[in-house]
Amino acid sequence: MKCFVEPSDEVIMPTCSFVGAANAVVDRGARVVFCDVDKLTLNATAKAIEEKISPATKAVCILHFGGVPCELDEIVELCAAKNITLIEDSATAVSSFYKGKACGTFGQAGTWSFDAMKILVCGDGGMIYVKDADKFKKLRQNIYLGLVSQSGFTNSVDSKWWEFQIDTFGRRSIMNDISSAIGLVQLEKLPKFIAKRKHVAELYDSLLANVDWLKLPPPLKDYQKSSYYMYHVQTKNPEDRDRLASYLRGKNIYTTFRYYPLHWVNLYGQKFEHLPNAEAAALCTLCLPIHQSLADGKLNLSAGK
Ligand SMILES: Cc1ncc(COP(=O)(O)O)c(C=O)c1O
Question: pLDDT band at 82, cuts 50/70/90?
């Protein structure tokens, strides 16, 4: 059974992706091809993806920037028409929905992260969803050293249940019981976390509405539900963005830009690319603090002063 991506295949992903997604492609011996993003949402679009499709394109790996779902109908349709595997990096979209369906379940595979910076935090770890039953079986083997049985009790060899064979050299990428137990408790709290993040985002929306030198994130469409993982503002020019970041840092307020365009990272060897929207966004976008423990009092901004 073939994997989603074989060496020498091409995988398209938005240049504003997490470095781990691109590294996984390279680790597989495949070639990563970066596409542009929408200037305001920083999500990949079907049009930007289509521009990068070649006969070698095997998969597309999108992410839902800040928890806001991509325009999935168009992307799913494009991938289906071109017979390209769709993988959703849903690390930022643990509770994001597009037309009522969970992000991460539109393509052939979806991944989630539960690391320390995410919404649902387990210390570390993550989750993978794979639609195809055979690929899922193979994945289960791959994430646990190639082993099929989980314990001697489930080994089909009745006597001598310690004997085994493997048909793949898998790695050990399973979560441990302690992280999983934390995850189950976090899962119960997830709706509260999302509600708090939504509240913070709405507070930013109203407090910053009249700041004429800041562009706020586009309003959600009625069929999009966000996880409110990030909240980003955009300035008219790079100098204002950098000045704002330094000013806030001086006040001990941490802001950042995610995700620094990967075609600008030397090791990928793709500096020749020109992806104008991503480049403009990378110079003028700033992600403001947003998390479920942020007290309203800390958001008492005196914007514009
Ligand atoms: C979009 C995105 N994908 C993937 C990851 C990686 O998650 P992990 O390190 O848990 O694999 C991150 C982490 O920051 C992320 O932001």
Answer: very high
Nearest to 123 by CA among 45, 63, 179, 78: 179
pLDDT, averaged across the chain: 94
> Which residue, chain included where needed, has tokens 């240049």?
15
Nearest ligand 1 atom to the CA of 126 is 10
294 in a structural domain: yes
Determine, yes or no, domain membership for 305. no
User: According to the model, what pLDDT value does residue 303 have?
Assistant: 46
Is any ligand 1 atom within 6 A of the Cβ of residue 304?
A: no
Q: Domain check: are 211 and 127 in the same one?
A: no
Residue 246 has a pLDDT of: 98
Per-residue confidence (pLDDT) for residue 156, from 0 to 100: 64
Domain final residue pick, 182, 206, 237: 182
The total domain count for the chain is 2
pLDDT digits (tens, 9 = 90+) for 3-59: 889 999 999 999 999 999 999 999 999 999 999 999 999 999 999 999 999 999 999
Atom of ligand 1 nearest to the CA of 17: 1
Residue nearest to atom 8 of ligand 1 (CA): 113
Pocket residue to mutate for ligand 1, from 92, 111, 259, most atoms within 8 A of Cβ? 92
Residues 154 and 213 in one domain: no
130 and 33 together in one domain: yes
Domain end point (choices 161, 182, 203): 182
| 3 located within any domain | no
Structural domain including 119 reads 10-182
| pLDDT value of residue 305 | 40
**Whole-number Cα distances in Å, 276 to 39, 241, 281:** 9, 18, 8
pTM over 0.85: yes
Query: For the chain, how big is the Rg over CA atoms in Å?
Result: 21
Ligand 1 neighbourhood includes 262 CB (under 6 angstroms): no
User: Are 31 and 95 found together in one domain?
Assistant: yes
- Is residue 126 within 6 Å of ligand 1 at its C-beta? yes
Cα four-point dihedral sign 165, 168, 171, 177 = negative
Burial of 216 (0-12, 13-18, 19+ CB in 10 A): middle
